Amino acid sequence: MQLREMERTPVRFSAEHYLRLDIEERTELLGGVIYRVSPRNEPHSFAVAVLARLLIRGLGDEYEVRTQDHVAVPDWRGKNAPEIDVAVLKRGFFDLGPTAAEACAFIEVAHTTYGGRMGDRTYKIPLYVRTGVPSWIVNITKRQVEYYATPEDLALPHGHVATEFETIDILGVSIRVRDLFAPTDPETTSA
Fold first, then answer.
1. Could you tell me the residue ranges of all domains in the chain?
2. Which residues, in sequence order, are bridge partners of residue 90?
3. Which of 7, 121, 125, 186 yields a CA-CA distance of 20 to 30 A from 82?
4. Which residues are CB-neighbours of 14 under 8 A, at least 6 positions away?
């Protein structure tokens, strides 16, 4: 009698099932698979903090700004619940958490997570844009911000680029790109 080798197949999770799990480490669900989130570093944390502060101040009470929180994309039946660096949402309480339907803007800060199969530019931004959520990447390495609003923008190598000498507009809030990065000159102060 011959024993056949059992075929191993991964278990795919829905966003709803994933967020009901009690996972102690920082993870996110991408394509139904649970991935560990890259460790944070100071350039990343700095940019997230500046964005959150400026958006909260500029948007007021009409919106909610969440940092490094999960959002189901497109919804709870889907296979994605990424940990989004900065999400601007319609204000409200969400039983399981927000979905892309409540999202007004997503911002990813990429220092070590820009490319790769499940990276910010290659996986997350196309996912967000196809769901209809305008999205930005703060590219720490290149000291620039990339903006993607339509599927056509995804065909551009880096979307619409704003250099550190320019200003971006997120839902009517003007943000100087250079304020998102550590100063290059020790005499320079940031936002």
1. 15-180
2. 63
3. 7
4. 32, 76, 77, 78, 79
